[in-house]
Amino acid sequence: DQQVKQNSPSLSVQEGRISILNCDYTNSMFDYFLWYKKYPAEGPTFLISISSIKDKNEDGRFTVFLNKSAKHLSLHIVPSQPGDSAVYFCAASEGNTDKLIFGTGTRLQVFP
Amino acid sequence: DADVTQTPRNRITKTGKRIMLECSQTKGHDRMYWYRQDPGLGLRLIYYSFDVKDINKGEISDGYSVSRQAQAKFSLSLESAIPNQTALYFCATSHRTGKSQGHEQFFGPGTRLTVL
After folding, report:
1. Is B32 at the interface with chain A, CB within 8 A?
2. How does B32-48 read in b/e, with b if 16+ C-beta sit within 10 Å?
3. Which residue has the higher pLDDT, B112 or B101?
4. Residue B15's closest CA among B71, B112, B85?
5. Using 50, 70 and 90 to split pLDDT, how confident is the model at B95?
6. What end-to-end distance do the CA atoms of chain B give, in Å?
7. Residues of chain A with confidence (pLDDT) below 50
8. How many other CB atoms sit within 10 Å of the CB of residue B78?
9. CA A75 to mean position of chain CA atoms
10. Cβ–Cβ < 8 Å for B11, B115
11. What backbone phi and psi angles, to 5 degrees, belong to B98?
12. Does residue B101 surpass a pLDDT of 80?
């Protein structure tokens, strides 16, 4: 049973436009959410996170939105750049466990 | 700088062989994790350790064992490798920072394991 879902396996966006990556979850006990970026032949790297007490967190070109009632979060990248082309994973954790549950990933391609 | 290192980076082995994947970290973190990544399945937790004397099973621990030799070292073993253990394996570390809820985990570069 997939507790964290990324229903779009891939996304293609033109350079300079907005990229929106989506993630849904089923466990209402999740209270912390993270986005990771992964390039080929490298490990995932942390990008941005949000606590369940917030509905938005922004870091430069990256903004994460959380809608707890819909159990949905999204990552906005504005403006998108070719170097943003990677696989993006959302992840969630519950309480003090520090265990992360990952989604299946979305491959973002930013073209010129 | 390679804060989390994994050896080997690539390994091809045969069914039934014993394999050990090693992870070392210089971040001073107390918590370490092993994940595997399969196409279309994301990252799944195999084992995790919150300190040297604490080892816990993750969601897919069958067929695997781990050893936390020191705070900085966490190894994953496949006692008798089988083809469906062919995957990309990642080690990660984290350090809980009290109320700041430092859930962020820091990943190594991965080991690509192929079991023939």
Report:
1. no
2. bbbbbbeeeebbbbbbb
3. B112
4. B85
5. confident
6. 33
7. none
8. 19
9. 5
10. no
11. 60, -135
12. no
Contact list in A for residue B92 (CB cut-off 8 A) is 43
Rg of the Cα atoms in chain A? 13
What does the pLDDT read at residue B98?
58
Gap from A66 CA to chain B (nearest CA, Å): 17
Please tell me if residue A49 touches chain B, with a CB cutoff of 8 Å.
yes
Q: Which of A23, A45, A100 to mutate to test the interface with B (most CBs of B within 10 A)?
A: A100
pLDDT at position B39: 84
B31 contacts chain A (CB < 8 A): yes
Radius of gyration of the CA atoms of chain B, in A: 14
Q: How far is A31 from chain B (nearest CA, A)?
A: 10
Query: Where residue B102 falls among pLDDT bands split at 50, 70, 90?
Result: low
- Is the minimum CB–CB distance between B46 and chain A shorter than 8 Å? no
Which pairs with CB-CB distance under 8 Å and at least 24 residues apart come from A22-25?
Answer: A22/A72, A22/A73, A22/A74, A22/A106, A23/A72, A23/A73, A23/A74, A23/A75, A23/A90, A23/A103, A24/A70, A24/A71, A24/A72, A25/A71, A25/A72, A25/A73, A25/A92
* Most A CBs within 10 Å, among B104, B106, B111, B112, to test the A interface: B104
Is A34 within 8 Å of chain B by CB?
Answer: yes
Mean pLDDT of B4-32: 96
Chain B, nearest residue to A98 by Cα: B103
